[in-house]
Design a protein that fits this description.
By secondary structure, the protein is mainly beta. It folds into 2 domains: 1-38; 47-189, Immunoglobulin-like (Sandwich). It is built from 1 helix and 10 strands; from the N terminus they run H-E-E-E-E-E-E-E-E-E-E. The strands form 2 sheets. Strands 3, 4, 5, 7, 8 and 9 form a 6-stranded antiparallel sheet that branches. The longest helix is centred in the first third of the chain and has 22 residues, at 15-36. The radius of gyration is 26 Å and the shape is elongated. It starts with 14 loop residues before the first helix and ends with a strand.
Length: 191
């Protein structure tokens, strides 16, 4: 909050000007104080937005030449309950980011239901526990997911659909990446 006090000598400001100054000072003070109490509000349902997908050369953990990919997306969650705590023996739900793979076949993007497809390293991921303290519970940020492709063909073209889920089981909107050519180093953004 910003508070200000202005001292004015009575003898130097005529009556009408003094009243105008006081009204102006009070108006500015009220607007400033009212602005301090505004709290952003968003729906409890998370919202995501695809940012980019980058393909690059890398090595896997055994030192083999591979392609890497990084999915980057923004998120907002109005009630701040995004992410899961580390799994325990009693916890059944251990993932909260889901991916669906599409491959370009004969010029069309076709959904692939094979969970062992080499271009879908995992179909689900875990966003770590996040919590916002204080009056404003909104969480905003960027999430990066890294992929390693050990088996691909020149010209393999794919895209992913993805969504997240918060701890209250609110599902986000479904987003999709741009079309990605796995064999070509590039950064792919929304078209």
């Amino acid at each position: 909050m910003i508070f200000g006090v202005i001292f004015v000598k009575k003898s130097k400001i005529p009556g009408a000007m003094k009243r105008t100054s006081i009204v102006l000072i009070l108006t500015i003070t009220l607007v400033t104080v009212a602005g301090c109490f505004k709290v952003d509000q968003l729906p409890a349902k998370p919202n995501i937005e695809f940012t980019s997908f980058e393909i690059f050369d890398t090595l896997d953990i055994l030192g083999n030449t591979s392609k890497g990919g990084i999915l980057l997306f923004r998120f907002e969650d109005g009630d701040g309950d995004l992410g899961l705590a580390p799994p325990t023996g009693l916890q059944t739900d251990t993932t909260n980011l889901q991916l669906v793979l599409y491959r370009k076949i004969d010029g069309n993007m076709v959904r692939i239901n094979d969970k062992y497809d080499p271009l879908l390293p995992y179909s689900s991921y875990r966003i770590p526990y996040m919590e916002r303290l204080g009056q404003n519970q909104i969480l905003r940020g960027t999430i990066a997911v890294t992929f390693i492709y050990q088996s691909y063909n020149t010209g393999d073209t794919i895209k992913y659909e993805f969504y997240i889920k918060d701890r209250a089981e609110n599902y986000s909107n479904i987003e999709e990446t741009a079309e990605i050519i796995v064999s070509e180093n590039n950064t792919y953004t929304k078209q």
